[in-house]
Amino acid sequence: MNYMWLSFASEExxxxxxxxxxxxxxxxxxxxxxxRYNINPGGHVAGYSLNEEQFQKQKVELNRLYTRQExxxxxx
Length: 76
Prior knowledge:
Blueprint: E1 2-9, E2 16-23, H1 27-36, E3 44-51, H2 52-58, H3 68-73
Antiparallel strand pairs: 1-2, 1-3
């Protein structure tokens, strides 16, 4: 499986609005899925692909938006 790590930031302040990981083969597919699953808070988005092993190391749920604080608490 292939995954996309998506990180969202406010267009005005640049502050992180959250992070999610979705199963996707590329950035565009990942972005569409983030909208479909209602886990896209808007703003600027950056992302990169993960393979299965990399995804498992993240210790996060698939298709869930994590806040900046949650990601900090998880050590990211």
